[in-house]
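Example record used in the benchmark description.
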Amino acid sequence: MTKRLLILITLLASAALARDWSKYPAVVVIDRAAVIYAVGDAHSDFVRLSAALRGAGIIDKDENWLAGNAVLVSTGDMIDKGPRALDVIRLLRKLRDAAPAKGGQVVILSGNHESEFMADPSVPKVREFVAQLKAAGIKAADVAACKGDLGEFFCSIAFAARVGDTFFSHAGNTAGRTVAQLEADIEKDFDKHGFSAQQLIGDGSVIEARLNGTGKGREVWLDAGLPKVSEAQLLTNYTKALGVTRIVEGHVPSEVRFADSVTRGTGEMFQRFGSLYLIDTGMSEGVDNSLGAVLHLTTGTATAICPDGKRTQLWDAASHPDTGRAKPCGK
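Model output (structure tokens):
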């Protein structure tokens, strides 16, 4: 392949993925929300996701929206590892369409699995999703090219959100930027590289920031200021720049160790310093760290809710605990 032809193909691909940022922002901003719910990585497990949403009182058995004027945020990784990705997507889209009639909103964010699929649907990581698409008569290449209903959906979902005083993204790392700076950086990189943008799937990105080593242990981005800046101060700096008080991320269901030796256990819903919330509980049967859970946020509290309705308070404004954890639901 000649260099000229390669450049032409790249330009054509970029044109196909051109995005109207005014219509489909990189970062969704909702200024006010008295009540917020958030759910982490469903990974194609429709049964556990729907059970978790029912247990939190967000939907009924017929998938009707019950949460009134609340905002529900899905932090991504809807696909892979489990058997029913298309049903997970269908449910979240149905709720996104239904919630406004009751005064509510649903924000669906991209995880690294969605972004990596869109960047290259041939990568082994997304093979389960590709197989499910094939079984449904949908061409993966068409979806990755933003074609058809599903392709248009994947090309419209945001990469982060600020809802009231809370920031959401799949992997949490903003590198200390403001919302405006983050949004500008994503847009510039995406306009040039599409879903292959390092702002999306780079190891230090807001969607795919990695743990050290084999996936267990330290969140690399929390090490940014050590030893001069503690994790608590780094989170304070990051939240202040974003204009929020807390950051909520999915992406990591496994053990996470903090610099002061506090450890988040596998499958736990967990908070640190009231500033960082880890909500990937490994709910998919393909992961099986828990049966799933929903984070419930109000101005003064943060609570984990299991599918059976059991509630565990992670944080409250009166006591400001440095650490809060909820055992994996059903384990």
